Amino acid sequence: MTDAPMTAPAATATAGEVISRYLTEQAGNFLRALPQAVGEAGARPGALPSLNSPAGSGGTLELLRAVRRVGGALHTFGAVFEPGWAHESRAELRWLLNLLAQEPAYQRRSARLLAAVDSLSGAAPAGEGGPGMLAGHQGAPKARALLDRQLTLARTRAHSTVLQELRSARLHALADRMTLLVGEAPLVEPARGKAGEVLPSQAAAAFAALGAAVQALPLRRAATAYQGDALHRLGGAEPAGPAVVVPPQGRTGDADSALAADDAPWHRVRILLKRARYALEVCGRPGDQLVELDRVLDCHQEAADAAVTAATAARTPRITPATAYVLGVVHADQRLEVEAARFAFGSRWPELPLSLDGWEGPPGQRMG
Amino acid sequence: MTDAPMTAPAATATAGEVISRYLTEQAGNFLRALPQAVGEAGARPGALPSLNSPAGSGGTLELLRAVRRVGGALHTFGAVFEPGWAHESRAELRWLLNLLAQEPAYQRRSARLLAAVDSLSGAAPAGEGGPGMLAGHQGAPKARALLDRQLTLARTRAHSTVLQELRSARLHALADRMTLLVGEAPLVEPARGKAGEVLPSQAAAAFAALGAAVQALPLRRAATAYQGDALHRLGGAEPAGPAVVVPPQGRTGDADSALAADDAPWHRVRILLKRARYALEVCGRPGDQLVELDRVLDCHQEAADAAVTAATAARTPRITPATAYVLGVVHADQRLEVEAARFAFGSRWPELPLSLDGWEGPPGQRMG
Q: Are B262 and B235 in contact (CB under 8 A)?
């Protein structure tokens, strides 16, 4: 992410000045992207199954980027803001994030799963290697069509919800909040402190939270290739926090909840890592390695979600055994991608120079 | 394999003396194990599906060990033997190997696949970690029963064939050949040369063949974890030699033949690696690292065979979609094991001290 170049805060800048400058920029991005995103959503027939009309194009993605950054800054540097306002703003930003992120997520999931079927069944574009283990399998086209149909339906539903809400009073109120942020973020006393003193301690807390969450991951196992941990030996049956929803039905729920519990700590780390990454941005520090790890955990999340979709599709009534068989292969393939992402994370994390100890505060302080 | 401790040949020993000593020992093992294996096969009801009566116990495994070693020595050091006799002997040993190896192979495949289903469905013995991605899935017990039934049937058939042949004239003739080997291997002129001069050049040829075959493997890709190479992007559609059997049926055959072509070069390396390993034994050199790689390629072969069994079971008529789905997961899981074995091989091979160049001949020569 090189498109948020922060000029290094001068040694004399206050915390409020540095954070206001960041929020002004991000809120500006938000306000510029909002009408574009609304226009895109209105112009896009949600029911179109084609992948040629990307749901997450232009405005929507820009809007999501800004929403994540403003929300992250309000969370990490919460001490410098008026608490009630910051709390409400974060809740509203979370609402918009959940609203907008769904459709592009379904789009990416569809692209991922259809590409997996194509690659496994050897129908991938020429030049990408030989056939897959499902080459010529009669169940492959059926499984592909089933996944496509179910994800298109989900995407259409998400699109309708977006269309409804994009003209709501709630969104207008949030836009007003963002307008306020341009130059006028409601700050409190600690904002008057020197940026080099106030911001690092709060960013350090974000890194501490990330470090603690990573500590709880089975990182040593993950860094050993082919442990089969994302397929076998899932991390305990007990739900790992409120993120895990135990489905009501009995038997098929066993695996779903076990997988959800296994993935939950990784999803949690993903959120904390994004926060740490945006905290570095606020402080004008480079965070290329965090960006890379963020990408790895995005893949982890997307593969885990895609695996759930494949498993759910396999429970569709009246499908043929051949279709179900292909979906089983695809499900395992996506869990393998989950394991691969964990391996990539486990191999790279220990090499990170920016542990909490190594994080020495924003350049303003270091130059001063 | 520490149970074939060769006393290092003296510097003055002839090639014939060294190789005769080795063959005498192995032929002795063969002759001791044969009646035991015959007795075991007769006492074992082949139809028993229980895993408590291991097909490859005691005598049979000892017999297989001796057969592999004598065959390997006759191949690698062929120049010191009477050619017609060596050629016939190897053909007969191959026949016995194929005959005897099947039942234990089905036994191991059964154990591997049932353990995979148990582990994936979370029914593995306690203490082996949490549930798997198929925990509580209704198709798991059915898929397990189907695999068990089909492999028991295959094992029973293999057993009947063994029972038939174990009393055949062909086996008696082979036993006579082995008896001849005890001290009286039919040698030709080169056997009179010094062991340290004759044997290394022939062992070196075995290593050269191994090295060339390994060179042809996609080793760099294999040594990078999670390339998905054993599931996606199989190594070209063209059959890689006579080992590949292209099945007659059309569409389901696509994947089968692609997988077979992908695995064939690895199976070939496995055979060459065993030969190189036994060549080291003949020369009284330690070969622990080859033993380890041999084990890895055995796993590769067994996982590849197990994957085929799972795919074949999924084509059984009238199975439920849930059963087929579980078999799809198991199939992918075994292909993942194939990939894991390739990764293990690709990571270890470059560290081998015994390349052809590093292989300096038997200790006899080095001490002399």
A: yes
pLDDT tens for residues B100-141? 999 999 999 999 999 999 999 986 655 456 789 999 899 999
- Closest residue in A to B308 (Cα–Cα): A133
Among B residues 246-305, those touching chain A with beta carbons less than 8 Å apart: 250-255, 258-259, 262
Instruction: Tell me the two tokens of residue B226.
Output: 């999670």
User: pLDDT digits over A160-215, tens only?
Assistant: 999 999 889 999 999 999 999 988 889 998 899 999 889 998 999 999 999 999 99
How many beta carbons lie within 10 A of that of residue B101, not counting itself? 17
Residue with tokens 């154990």: B111
The pTM of this model reads 0.87
Q: pLDDT-based confidence at B240, cuts 50/70/90?
A: very low
Q: Which residues pair with A202 in a beta bridge?
A: none
Closest CB to A120 among B120, B225, B231: B231
Between the ranges A103-117, B198-212, B227-241, B346-360, where is the mean pLDDT highest? Answer: A103-117
Cβ-defined contact of A258 to B122 (cutoff 8 Å): yes
- Indicate yes or no: CB of B131 within 8 angstroms of CB of A254: yes
In angstroms, rounded to a whole number, what is the distance separating the alpha carbons of residues B357 and B188?
A: 28
Asked if the Cβ–Cβ distance from B252 to A133 is below 8 Å, we say no
- Among A118, A1, A108, A112, residue whose Cα is nearest residue A54: A108
